[in-house]
Write a structure and sequence with these properties.
- There is one protein chain.
- By secondary structure, the chain is of the alpha/beta class.
- β1, α1 and β2 form a beta-alpha-beta unit.
- The longest helix is centred in the middle third of the chain and has 26 residues.
Length: 266
């Protein structure tokens, strides 16, 4: 590893899949990492594994949809390391279990809970982090911090047969718009805001899809660069670039990390 994040502190929301891959990669690149997640058992497994490598890590259990808990998690991260240079908003998920689906079938509970799970959690954590970043001294690159949000290929390249989850797609589209609005506002404050938009990725959220032969065949066909589901590390590597000083001139961008999905769309 090259130490691309040496001396920097990252706050990552979520503790499995892409979040876990990012936490591991960021610590390998020299970052101090604080992880906030709702599920303590997954959180502790991740943190214990990172600590065993000698990494500087901290953690907080929180339902990030709740503003009080989100504020407390960000406060804990700041108290632990004294500064937050990077925020990677990963926490979110499918709303199928709440009633997400095509608009004519979805329940209002499914709509509300899917939007809260994905968009509200981004807003609560970003708000608390920005209140810290705005008062931080600029670093050698003139930056006060960088934020990376989690969108989805479904926000721009829908797949109606297999993924007719309209609340989820809308939530991810809202995150894209949020990213652009934040980037425009905070650019003159020295804070960059971008998003990654993955396609089918190996994670706890995709376990149902990975057990379905039709979806697996779809992934092989539509994600030919990786021959199926994306390994989470591929998204983590994109996140590393967008949060590091290597992308110091990049803000307001949404990077598709999709194995070719968008290029194979008819």
């Amino acid at each position: 590893m090259t130490g691309r994040l040496s001396g920097r502190t990252a706050l990552i929301t979520g503790s499995t899949g892409i979040a876990a891959a990012a936490a591991e990669l960021f610590t390998q690149e020299g970052a101090r990492v604080f992880v906030a997640s709702r599920t303590e058992v997954h959180l502790r497994e991740l943190v214990d594994a990172l600590a065993a490598t000698g990494a500087e890590v901290g953690w907080a259990t929180a339902d990030l949809q709740d503003e009080v808990q989100a504020d407390a998690a960000v406060d804990a991260a700041h108290e632990r390391f004294g500064r937050i240079d990077m925020l990677f908003n990963v926490a979110g998920g499918s709303g199928r279990r709440f009633g997400d689906g095509p608009v004519h079938e979805l329940t209002l509970e499914g709509w509300d809970r899917t939007m809260a799970l994905n968009v509200r959690s981004h807003v609560t954590v970003s708000r608390a982090v920005l209140r810290r970043m705005l008062h931080q001294d600029r670093d050698a690159d003139g930056s006060r911090g960088a934020i990376l949000n989690m969108a989805s290929v479904l926000a721009s390249h829908p797949q109606p047969e297999l993924f007719p989850t309209h609340a989820y797609a809308t939530a991810k589209g809202a995150i894209v718009t949020l990213t652009l609005a934040m980037a425009a506002y905070y650019v003159r404050h020295g804070i960059r805001v971008n998003a990654v938009a993955p396609s089918l990725t190996v994670s706890r959220m995709s376990e149902r899809a990975a057990a379905d032969a039709v979806t697996v065949a779809f992934a092989v066909d539509r994600q030919p660069l990786v021959g199926g589901f994306l390994p989470a590390i591929d998204v983590a590597r994109a996140a590393l670039f967008l949060l590091s000083a290597e992308s110091r001139a990049i803000t307001g961008q949404v990077l598709l990390v999709d194995g070719g999905w968008s290029s194979t769309t008819v």
